[in-house]
Design brief:
7-stranded mixed β-sheet; homodimer; 304 residues; Metallo-beta-lactamase, Chain A
Chain lengths: 304, 304
């Protein structure tokens, strides 16, 4: 079975606590690792979670607050020490490319792999695409320009209905076309509809990362119908004023985003350092959107 | 009793391991904190070791390898969040001031304290001085320009011999002069030698931090007669070639530095990631210099 797995490396907010690391996650998509945000200490969490740095080729940075990017220089230096080859692409805004580019030029002079910056703009844009997956930016609303990231599987091939293809003697060389939805034409000219020869493809899973942001309608269309939504819930409802003034979300606002987006599952994270546990946050979010779970360092979720 | 205490926050080398953090230490001198080096994760170790960020006003960076400085942006950002006031002085070379200056300008725009860079040059120079302590650079030899740091207490006042000052009726207003070594003149003109009125002052403790370096005679004069020497011992003796090619030291070379400097005590650190424990390193160093201990995260040593 193809793998599409989320790994939570850090789900705290700016102020460090002994309980949480700053923001970072890794998507393991068919054993290729995609990192979202890279707070300080991320490389240690990679080690602790058994994630192989050599399989990491793309890092996506949501915005330039330290708790989302200060782990980059250490992570990249360690990848260089470990002799990673090929290319590492860092998807980041223009200012970030300049600042971290200067750091890498100085500290990673003997880097055995190429470091490429893909400059991302604010908005809903495709920033990465391969045969199986597309990554888009999500236009969030925070104190500084911030985007989330939508990971969406590309449409998959339909499943062959073996009994029927045997019956109609579909030749092997036609199978890929049939999997892609083509009808089959018999020698006598009769057309066999694809729907008789195949069963539905597996659904295309969508995962959205929305942190940091206050709730607005602007980003809802991009995350419509996601299977899994990671949404920040920095504060409980009693701290709504704090959330507003800092351009963050409360638990109820995170849950509201899940409802508006018609998400199937919600993961809340980016917890303020003021909470000694997150039970209250979970209760408040579940009261609005029952399919909610808490992020936690070390959590792995298999989307498929 | 005045405090002069060493706190080890990290004593690993460049490659991260689950056992060690990259280099950082804090000197607690009479409740003022002086940090030496600041690898990634240093701010977390400050928190774990109960060291108050508001009492940290000076950071000394030995050289620009990531495992000695990548914790700076996160540490300074957190100090800003916590509302530290006054001035933070970062003693660092010119390149470091430029690189980290750019980072602070971007990420710490609303910093409530002033960040000052004190540009340090290679050599044996006084870089900090107050009424009680002097800090000098130590000219080490590494792949990039590197200095160690010598922390030396200034001469202290002599202890009054109360019996004698009572006997000679030394007035209170003369006491500070007597403590500073002056003789006392009686009304009849007779001179009472200071040595009869006072006892020796407490000794002035010296601590030297030498990491990273290969062993050379160049830095020995600066660290002569130190009470405590922290010296890197990245490798065991069997890896002497590795040590030489990377401009690091072996255990025996660290011990040899302690002997040449006539140090009283040696702490070895900056352990290569290859060791699953440091027993071999300790044995090798002790075979040459018995007063050796291993650094370890969380270790506190009271020099007085």
């Amino acid at each position: 079975m193809a793998k599409f797995q989320l790994n939570i490396l850090g789900c705290g907010s700016a102020k460090p606590t002994p309980r949480h690391n700053p923001s970072s996650q890794v998507i393991n998509f068919r054993d290729n690792l995609f990192m979202i945000d890279c707070g300080e200490g991320t490389q240690s969490m990679m080690l602790r979670m058994g994630l192989n740095l050599n399989r990491l080729n793309h890092i996506f940075i949501s915005h330039l607050h330290g708790d989302h990017c200060f782990g980059l220089p250490g992570l990249v230096s360690t990848m260089a020490l470990q002799g990673k080859g090929g290319t590492l692409t860092i998807h980041i805004n223009k200012d970030g490319a300049k600042l971290f580019g200067d750091m890498f030029n100085y500290f990673c002079r003997e880097c055995p792999f190429e470091i490429k910056f893909n400059i991302i703009e604010y908005g809903d844009n495709i920033i990465y695409e391969d045969n199986s997956i597309v990554v888009r930016t999500i236009p969030l609303k925070h104190r500084v320009p911030t985007v989330g990231f939508l990971f969406e599987e590309k449409p998959k091939m339909r499943h062959i209905n073996r009994e029927m293809t045997d019956y109609f003697k579909v030749p092997v060389y036609k199978m890929d076309a049939i999997r892609n939805g083509e009808d089959f034409v018999l020698e006598n000219g009769e057309i066999i509809a694809n729907s008789r020869l195949t069963k539905d493809a597996d659904p295309c899973i969508k995962y959205a990362y929305c942190s940091d942001t206050m709730l607005t309608d602007k980003y809802i269309p991009t995350i419509k119908d996601v299977d899994w939504l990671y949404h920040e819930a920095t504060y409980d409802n009693a701290n709504e004023k704090n959330a507003r003034s800092r351009y963050h979300s409360t638990t109820t606002q995170a849950a509201e985003a899940a409802i508006r987006a018609n998400a199937k599952n919600l993961i809340i994270g980016h917890f303020s350092s003021r909470y000694h546990n997150e039970e209250l946050l979970l209760q408040e979010a579940r009261a609005v959107f029952p399919n909610t779970i808490l992020a936690n360092e070390g959590l792995k979720i298999d989307f498929i």
